[in-house]
Specification:
Blueprint: E1 5-6, H1 10-23, E2 27-29, E3 41-43, H2 45-64, E4 69-72, H3 81-85, H4 88-91, E5 93-98, E6 105-107, E7 127-130, E8 133-136, E9 146-149, H5 154-159, H6 161-168, E10 174-183, E11 198-208, H7 213-230, E12 238-242, E13 254-262, E14 265-276, H8 278-287, E15 293-295, E16 300-302, E17 305-312, H9 313-324, E18 325-330, E19 333-338, E20 349-353, H10 359-373, E21 378-380, H11 386-395, E22 400-404, H12 406-411, E23 413-418, E24 424-428, H13 432-440
The protein binds glycyl-adenosine-5'-phosphate.
Length: 442
């Protein structure tokens, strides 16, 4: 049974997660030793594992467990025409104003009166600011060599629509999934990793016959909401919010956000958009290539509509961390637990010798670790007392601790402790792998 949970204040939660991420090797500020680079982050050893597990879970659910989606891995750099066709060159903009006194920069939506919200100073006239990051390819930096770091992974999928249909013999409806880095020169960059300048997206472009798009759109909203719940987010911390007409991106016919209740308020975790035929038609127009689909059963030729579930890896990680974090009171002491879904947890088990000065116990613990290593991400640790070792593993979300004690040498059994219930099972050494594999599936 789980212990009674201690109540957290929302304002404390942000500090607690930021501190845990740094202290326990989940997320570090990028270029920290030089003072840090704003809105860019490095994933530490446990963060990197969590991120891999999250991507793997998404890929498994969408590519392996369905038969109507293929994966793709496109280049970050694309021809600049891509971003003209997609509308990012002309539409991917924020309207900004600067304060003439304190020099702070604000999005126009952040301003309520005519004065600077920070110092009351005079503001400049609003001006447009394109959020794409620019770079030059080749040795000469001129207009001809200008290109962009992609602001979304989606366009790589659209420009490859024909390639996928032809090489995979795909029939509409089908989808293409992609995970990869995207870049945006964000102006507001508070709230930890929530709005980063370099981040990862997990996107699906699902191609459907026009007229069936609304049905697919609502199916995908349900599908994606349930996916977050399946991997551990509490349903009461999630909600669905339909965009009003005036909020819609330039390409969208409709859009629904899945929002998470972050400590700083309800905010977008993933957007599911009905992009209609905007992108395929635009790429066809600018490239001069025909991009359409021929249905050889009905003899119809049409440009498919697209339903796009588009989520962020970094934002999801943040939500999973907030949702999993809990403090409990156990025998008058505070226990911090990261109750992550077992599939997402960075380590699956830790192997701990009860006495680190007993070579025979240490040897058996190392042997168990070595036996498990190939299949499961496990770690041997003998750097503190057993109580502290348990607490450390609880704090990084390790589902199981395998403890080797004096009796293990005689009966060849170890104790396996469950992170959430703290219940302990005594298991034969030969059954440890089977026990963990079975229980990690639950
Ligand atoms: N292709 C559609 C698209 O890119 P978006 O709503 O701009 O739509 C999709 O982005 C998702 O990508 C968001 O729901 C969010 O999870 C993530 N995302 C967008 N900008 C981000 C940023 N600056 N930092 C972290 N994640 C971001």
């Amino acid at each position: 049974m789980q212990q009674p949970e201690l109540k957290q204040s929302k304002s404390d939660m942000m500090d607690k997660i930021v501190s845990l991420c740094k202290r326990r090797g989940f997320i570090f500020q990028s270029s920290e030793i030089y003072g840090g680079l704003a809105a860019t982050w490095d994933y530490g050893p446990f963060g990197a594992e969590l991120k891999r597990n999250l991507k793997e879970a998404w890929w498994r659910s969408n590519v392996y467990e369905r038969d109507d989606i293929d994966g793709l891995d496109c280049a970050i750099l694309m021809r600049p025409e891509t971003w003209m066709a997609s509308g990012h060159v002309s539409n991917f903009e924020d309207t900004l104003v600067d304060c003439k006194s304190c020099k702070k920069r604000f999005k126009i939506e952040q301003i309520t009166g005519k004065k600077c919200p920070e110092c009351g100073g005079e503001l400049t006239e609003p001006r447009q600011f394109n959020m794409m990051l620019k770079t030059h390819l080749g040795p000469i930096e001129d207009a001809a060599s200008l290109t962009y770091l992609r602001p979304e992974t989606a366009q790589g999928i659209f420009v490859n629509f024909k390639n996928v249909v032809d090489s995979m013999r795909r029939k509409v409806p089908f989808g293409v999934a992609q995970i990869g880095k995207s870049f945006r020169n964000e102006v507001t960059t508070k709230s930890f990793t929530f709005r980063s300048r370099e981040f990862e997206q997990m996107e699906i472009e699902f191609f459907v016959k026009p007229g069936t798009d609304e049905e697919w759109y609502s199916r995908w909203v349900d599908e994606r909401f349930n996916w977050y719940v399946k991997f551990g987010l509490k349903a009461e911390n999630l909600r669905i919010r339909q965009h009003e007409k005036k909020e819609l991106a330039h390409y969208a016919k409709a859009c629904t956000d899945i929002e998470y209740q972050f400590p700083f308020g309800w905010s977008e975790l993933e957007g599911i958009a009905n992009r209609a035929d905007f992108d395929l038609r635009q790429h066809s127009r600018l490239s001069g290539k025909e991009i359409d689909y021929f249905d050889d059963i009905t003899n119809e030729r049409y440009v498919p509509y697209v339903i796009e579930p588009s989520g962020g890896i970094d934002r999801s990680i943040l939500a999973f961390l907030f949702d999993a974090y809990r403090e409990e009171k156990v025998k008058d002491e505070k226990r911090v637990v990261l109750g992550l879904h077992k599939g997402l947890a960075p380590l699956k088990a830790a192997v701990l010798p009860l006495l680190r000065n007993r070579p025979d116990i240490v040897e058996l613990a190392h042997k168990i670790t070595d036996d498990l290593k190939g299949d499961l991400k496990v770690r041997y640790d003998d750097t503190a007392s057993i109580g502290r070792l348990y607490r450390r593993q609880d704090e990084v979300g390790t589902p199981y601790c395998v403890t080797v004690d004096v009796d293990s040498l005689a009966d060849n059994k170890v104790t396996i402790r469950d992170r959430d219930t703290m219940k302990q099972d005594r298991i034969d050494v030969s059954r440890v792998r089977e026990y963990l594999t079975e229980n990690l599936k639950r």
